[in-house]
Every structure is written in structure tokens, then in C-alpha cells.
């Protein structure tokens, strides 16, 4: 029996949230019997495997895969999910998040009616305090056509549509298989790696700008504590790998990687730089400089980062490090942060 | 920064591609002096991965991937011309190999003589043996290479793209590119180049390029190829007229004519042969000159072609074809020592 869409959820120790995620797929207005739900358990140690088994027993279109060893990343579950899927269209969901009930229907119908290779929409970040409505960024010079409800990107523009998350969009399985696309098993950026490479082969991408189809449950401990120099170097490795893979396609790599470089800068000053050795930080900055040269980076990062980047490119790493430390202090001081915000505005 | 850019257009070449690339890396000139451009025309086999592998390993290997297939190697060669960063460019097909010394030899020669083109001979490799193919029998005293200048350039009958080092600035300045919509693009490209080159040096005793014809995708033994050749000649004749160099047409097309007849020998069907001869007649009719022919058999056959006696000409071609295929007769022919 062939299904229209496969939804793949990699699961790990998610007993508190997994039912919410799964139910949001079952409640799809698209019709759950058109969906193949693939649940990959990455050797959870809590009650997640039992929950998965219950759903698999109850519904014939729920496929459960249990791994004996924990791989440490959601990538493996996604890759295996794609291999096992029986549908032509693929969507992903993380075990913390949930779909809006019309997500599958809206994405699928748009894809088919427009003969597109990729459709995505906005999403909502929900943390403990607020809901933030998120629009997907894109470079305004690279739109093919804009309507009231959607924006279309053609073959040469699709790569500049910067939706790097993978849960608010629909993919075509044949593009994934024919080009051997996969999620690398790394701590970070595995979704950016996958979706950027996918966009290389897209002839038509659509962004439903007024529809917000995904609820992301964001935890507040994300950025500041979990990043150290090892993590930053890992991030840079994935970014360099991605560049090596797409550099032959003649894109404006300066634009494509602008977001990543901006994020590197942000992550550097946010972490507590006193915890890392100066040598480690400078080695990282040196690698970053080489990467910028390789991609011929020539885009603006904003006044302050441009200023710091000037010193990095001239190999005055000590000065740039000093600037990062100042930024870090501003970030961590409420008083200074308020002044900083007033100055920026 | 780099002395030479080598351009390889690639399509479904997984079988031989590594060998081809390795022959560039092995160059006696030093691979660090070479920029290697690998242009993939949307291959469906493992070629893309091979390209990725090499371009990650070497900084001077530049990959180009296309989302669409363009059908001929012209696309890749043109992308190469436009993106090469060195002063001199060389073209390599994705299943051929370069001799280890070709870059060093051709580069030193083109620099020393300040030429627009330096070239050598190629070996034909059919998987069993290698046969050298040389274009010129004349020797220049004192040197092991020939210098051709001014009017000698345009009648240089070496119309292959293999085994040549081109001065890129002349190509760019005169907008010389491979025509994607035509067959016999090598013939057209070289002849158009010769209209704009002032000095060529030809290392005529050196085999620098090995042409692999084992799985060759291009068939030289069908009538469509030969008709394409004639159409290309017609196009070139018009270009010659525009450049006021049509006085050289007889010499230039002499070689083309002998090539066409020789390939006609390999055609089996009388219908195909007649088709080619009719096209040839149309072409010769248009020219207001007669092509120089110094080979006896060409004279005889062409005598009937220009009088529209296609049947007789076809019979003669079939006889000659059979003779060239018959070893016994070939030996006698060789002993008599034909020209």
C-alpha cells in the first residue's frame, strides 16, 4: 500500500512530548490514512519505545523502527526513515514539536498545483513565556514572483531562500534519492546541510508567507551554555563540508553563507570566552578567516561585525578577540544591553 | 598564479575519469602550476562523486556542476574558456590521457617563441596498440619543431583540439568559442582560431596526447557525421569570405575532402554514400574555386562527383573501400609505395 506523504519523527527519550507530536500528525486534515508515519527510536531509556509500540499496534500506517544503540543525533533516524519510506513526498517532525492540523494538506496541495519541488511556510516558536511568530528569511533580490499569499523561487533563486529548518516544509523523495542527500551525523547544522543541498536541485520553491504551520517548542537553555570551542569548530566543519559540496554550482556563496558567518560571530561573543584557551579561540578565528577567503566573502554583516571582521581578515586576532569580549560583557549585563539596544535603534 | 589551465568537459565518464585526472596530476611541469577545471554536464553515473573527491583534495581543481545536460562537450569547453584564470588553456577529453611531459613541452615552447598556439601529435589508442598521427611531413632545419606564421597559419591542416595549448587572450578577444549547435565543432573551432592566430609552433615528433577510441561515443563512420563535416565546411567558407581570407579555401578544404573520401570507404550502404556525395557536390558547386587534390584516387572519384555521376563514384568508393579492407591488396599497395 503506497501512501502519499511519509512523516518521519526521530525519537529519543521524549516520553513527555512524543504523544503530542504524534497526535498532531494523526489529526491532519489531509487524512491520516494518506500518511505513513515513521517513528525511529534511537535506543531511548525512558517510556518512549512503549509509546511508539502502542501507536504502531493501533495504526497500520505507523511504522516503528527500534535501534539497539544510541547514535546521539536525530540524523540517523531521518536518514533511515527516508530509506524505509513508501511515499513520493517526505516531511520531518521532531519529537518535541507539533504540526498545525492543515500543514500536510496546505504544503501538499501547493506542491502539486504549482508543480513545485519544495514548499514551506512560516512557524511559531513557543517558549515558556511567549509565542514568537517566525517568518522565513530570504534575499529580496532573488524572488521570482510574489503574490498575496506566497512567494515563488525558480531554479536559479531557490538556493537564496533561507529556510534551513526542515519541519515546516515538504520534500520530494526522488530529489533526495537521486542526489544521495542525507543528514550528516553531527551535533549541529545537520538540517542546514541537508536543506541547502536539497535546494541546489530545486527548480521551483514556494513559500506560503501567511501560513504558520509548525509549533516549535523551544527551550531556553539552548545557546549560551551548550556552546564551547569544540562545538564551534564542529559547526565550522559542517559549514566547510557544505561549501565543498555546493561550490561547483556557481552560486553566490557569499550570500548563502552570510547567515552562518553571522551566527558564528554571535556564538563567539555569547559564550564565556574566559573559559576557553586563547590559542583555541585564535585557531578557530584563523579557520574562519580561511573559510571567508575560500568563499570570497564580500557581504555586510552589519556595522559592528564588519568592524570585527576587518581585524579577523587582517589576522589581528587579538584585537578581534578583545572586541568579542566587550560584546560578551554587554550581552551579559542588563544595563549595558539596554544602552546597546538604544544605540542600535 | 597558474601557468596553464586544463579544461575537461565531463559526461558519464566514471570508467576512465580517474585515469584522465591522474595524468594531469602527474605532469612533469608540477601540478601546482596547473589549474584543472572539471565541468560536469549533469552526469548520471559516479562522475560527480569523483569530481567532488578530487576537488576537495586539491585546491587547484575547480568543479563546475550543471543542473541541465547540454548534449555536447562544447558546453564544458566554453565554460572552461570563460572561467580559466591562466594565460594558456588546453582541452582534455574525459576518457583520454596526457603524456607526462606535454604541459612542460608545450608551455616552454609557446613562451620561448611567443606564439598563440603550440601543439604536438597524438596517439590513437584502440586498446590493442597505439598509432601515432602526425600532420606534417616537412621539417624545419635546426629545430625539432615547426614555426608557422601569418599565411601559413590559416592553412595549417591540424584541426584537432587535442594536444594543443592555446593563448587564452586571443580566444577571449575574438570571442572564439565552440558552437554547441554544430557538428565537427573541433574543425570549426580550430579553423576560426587560425584566422586570428599570428604564430603557431608545432612539435611534430612528439606524441603528447593519447586519444582513447575504445568506447568512443562519437561515430565517425556514419553518413550523418560526414554530412555534418560538409556543413561545417560550408559555414567556414563563409567565415573565410568575411575575413577576406577565402583565397586560402582551396588549401584548407583539400584536407577535408580527403578525410571525407577516406571515411566514405568505411560506409557500407550505397544509399549513405550517395547522400554524402550529393552533399559534397552541392558544396563544391557553391565554391567558386576547385579544391586542390594531389592524391590520384581523390582526383578520379571527384571527377565523377562534380559531373553528378554519383552511381559511378559510389561504385569506385566501394571498390576502394574493399581494397583498403583487404590485407593482401594493402600489402601490395604498400610495396608499390603509393603517395
Report on the structure:
The complex is a heterodimer of chains A (345) and B (339). Chain A has 345 residues and is an alpha/beta fold. Chain A has helices at 18-26, 48-58, 75-84, 103-113, 173-178, 190-200, 223-226, 229-246, 253-256, 258-270, 278-294, 303-313, 317-332, 334-344; strands at 5-11, 35-41, 62-66, 89-92, 98-99, 118-126, 131-134, 145-146, 150-154, 169-172, 204-217. Chain A has 14 helices and 11 strands. In chain A, strands 1, 2, 3, 4, 5, 6, 7, 8, 9, 10 and 11 form an 11-stranded mixed β-sheet that branches. Chain B is globular. Chain B is built from 13 helices and 10 strands. Chain B has 339 residues and is of the alpha/beta class. In chain B, 45% of the residues lie in helices and 18% in strands. The A-B interface holds A 155, 200-201, 203, 244-245, 247-250 and B 40, 51-52, 55-56, 62-65, 67.
* Count of DSSP-assigned helices of chain A: 14
Q: Strand tally of chain B, please?
A: 10
- The helix/strand class of chain B is alpha/beta
Major pleated sheet of chain A: 11 strands, mixed
The N- to C-terminal Cα distance of chain B equals 48 Å
Distance between the termini of chain A: 57 Å
Order of helices and strands of chain B: EHEHEHEEHEEEHEHHEHHHHHH
The total beta strand count of chain A reads 11
What fraction of the residues of chain B are assigned to beta strands by DSSP? Answer: 15-25%
Question: SSE string of chain A, helix = H, strand = E?
Answer: EHEHEHEEHEEEEEHHEHHHHHHHH
Number of helical runs of chain B?
13
Cα radius of gyration of chain B in angstroms: 21 Å
Q: Give the biggest sheet of chain B.
A: 10 strands, mixed
Mean pLDDT of chain B: 85
- In terms of per-residue confidence, which ranges of chain B show pLDDT below 50 for 5 or more consecutive residues? none
Based on Cα principal axes, name the global outline of chain A. Answer: globular
How much helicity do the residues of chain A have? 40-55%
Amino acid at each position: 500500500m503506497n501512501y502519499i506523504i511519509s512523516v518521519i519523527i526521530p525519537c529519543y527519550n521524549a516520553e513527555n512530548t512524543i504523544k503530542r507530536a504524534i497526535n498532531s500528525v494523526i489529526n491532519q486534515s489531509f487524512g491520516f490514512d494518506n500518511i505513513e508515519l515513521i517513528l525511529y527510536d534511537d535506543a531511548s531509556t525512558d517510556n518512549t519505545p512503549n509509546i511508539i509500540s502502542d501507536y504502531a499496534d493501533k495504526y497500520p500506517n505507523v511504522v516503528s523502527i527500534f535501534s539497539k544503540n544510541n547514535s546521539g543525533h536525530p540524523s540517523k533516524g531521518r536518514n533511515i526513515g527516508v530509506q524505509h519510506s513508501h511515499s513520493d513526498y517526505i516531511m520531518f517532525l521532531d519529537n518535541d514539536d507539533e504540526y498545525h492540523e492543515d500543514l500536510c494538506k496546505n504544503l501538499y496541495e501547493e506542491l502539486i498545483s504549482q508543480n513545485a519541488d519544495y514548499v514551506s511556510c512560516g512557524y511559531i516558536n513557543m517558549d515558556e513565556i511567549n509565542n514568537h511568530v517566525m517568518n522565513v528569511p530570504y534575499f529580496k533580490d532573488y524572488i521570482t514572483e510574489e503574490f498575496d499569499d506566497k512567494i515563488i523561487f525558480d531554479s536559479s533563486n531557490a538556493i537564496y531562500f533561507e529556510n534551513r529548518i526542515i519541519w515546516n516544509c515538504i520534500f520530494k523523495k526522488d530529489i533526495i534519492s537521486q542526489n544521495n542527500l542525507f543528514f550528516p551525523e553531527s551535533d549541529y547544522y545537520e538540517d542546514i546541510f541537508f536543506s541547502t543541498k536539497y535546494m541546489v536541485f530545486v527548480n521551483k520553491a514556494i513559500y506560503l508567507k501567511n501560513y504558520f504551520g509548525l509549533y516549535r517548542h523551544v527551550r531556553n537553555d539552548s545557546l549560551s551554555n551548550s556552546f564551547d570551542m569544540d562545538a564551534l569548530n564542529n559547526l565550522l566543519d559542517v559549514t566547510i563540508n557544505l561549501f565543498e559540496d555546493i561550490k561547483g554550482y556557481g552560486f553566490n556563496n557569499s550570500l548563502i553563507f552570510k547567515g552562518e558567518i553571522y551566527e558564528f560571530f554571535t556564538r563567539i561573543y555569547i559564550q564565556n570566552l574566559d573559559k576557553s584557551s586563547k590559542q583555541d579561540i585564535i585557531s578557530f578565528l584563523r579557520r574562519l578567516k580561511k573559510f571567508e577567503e575560500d568563499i570570497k566573502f564580500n557581504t555586510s554583516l552589519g556595522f559592528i561585525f564588519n568592524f570585527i571582521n576587518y581585524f579577523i581578515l587582517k589576522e589581528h586576532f587579538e584585537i578581534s578577540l578583545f572586541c568579542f569580549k566587550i560584546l560578551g560583557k554587554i550581552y551579559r549585563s542588563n544595563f549595558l544591553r539596554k544602552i546597546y539596544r538604544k544605540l542600535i535603534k | 598564479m597558474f601557468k596553464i589551465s586544463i579544461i575537461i568537459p565531463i559526461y558519464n565518464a566514471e570508467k576512465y575519469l580517474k585515469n584522465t585526472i591522474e595524468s594531469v596530476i602527474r605532469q612533469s611541469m608540477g601540478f601546482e602550476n596547473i589549474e584543472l577545471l572539471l565541468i560536469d554536464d549533469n552526469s548520471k553515473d559516479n562522475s560527480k562523486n569523483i569530481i567532488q573527491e578530487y576537488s576537495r583534495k586539491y585546491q587547484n581543481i575547480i568543479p563546475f556542476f550543471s543542473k541541465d545536460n547540454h548534449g555536447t562537450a562544447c558546453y564544458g569547453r566554453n565554460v572552461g574558456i570563460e572561467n580559466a584564470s591562466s594565460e594558456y588553456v588546453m582541452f582534455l577529453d574525459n576518457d583520454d590521457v596526457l603524456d607526462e611531459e606535454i604541459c612542460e613541452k608545450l608551455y616552454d615552447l609557446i613562451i620561448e617563441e611567443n606564439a598563440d598556439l603550440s601543439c604536438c601529435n597524438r596517439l590513437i589508442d584502440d586498446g590493442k596498440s597505439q598509432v601515432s598521427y602526425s600532420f606534417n611531413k616537412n621539417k624545419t632545419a635546426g629545430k625539432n619543431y615547426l614555426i608557422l606564421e601569418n599565411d601559413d597559419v590559416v592553412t595549417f591542416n591540424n584541426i584537432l583540439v587535442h594536444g594543443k595549448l592555446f593563448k587564452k587572450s586571443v580566444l577571449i578577444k575574438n570571442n572564439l568559442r565552440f558552437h554547441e549547435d554544430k557538428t565537427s565543432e573541433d574543425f570549426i573551432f580550430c579553423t576560426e582560431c587560425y584566422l586570428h592566430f599570428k604564430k603557431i609552433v608545432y612539435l611534430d615528433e612528439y606524441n603528447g596526447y593519447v586519444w582513447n577510441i575504445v568506447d568512443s561515443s562519437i561515430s565517425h563512420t556514419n553518413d550523418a557525421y560526414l554530412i555534418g563535416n560538409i556543413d561545417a565546411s560550408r559555414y567556414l567558407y563563409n567565415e573565410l569570405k568575411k575575413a577576406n581570407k577565402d583565397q586560402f579555401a582551396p588549401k584548407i578544404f583539400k584536407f577535408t575532402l580527403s578525410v571525407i573520401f577516406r571515411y566514405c570507404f568505411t560506409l557500407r550502404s550505397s544509399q549513405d554514400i550517395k547522400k554524402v556525395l550529393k552533399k559534397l557536390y552541392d558544396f563544391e558547386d557553391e565554391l567558386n574555386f576547385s579544391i586542390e587534390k594531389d592524391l590520384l584516387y581523390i582526383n578520379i572519384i571527384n571527377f565523377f562527383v562534380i559531373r553528378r555521376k554519383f552511381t559511378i563514384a559510389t561504385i569506385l568508393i566501394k571498390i576502394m573501400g574493399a581494397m583498403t579492407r583487404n590485407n593482401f591488396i594493402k600489402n601490395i599497395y604498400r610495396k608499390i609505395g603509393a603517395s
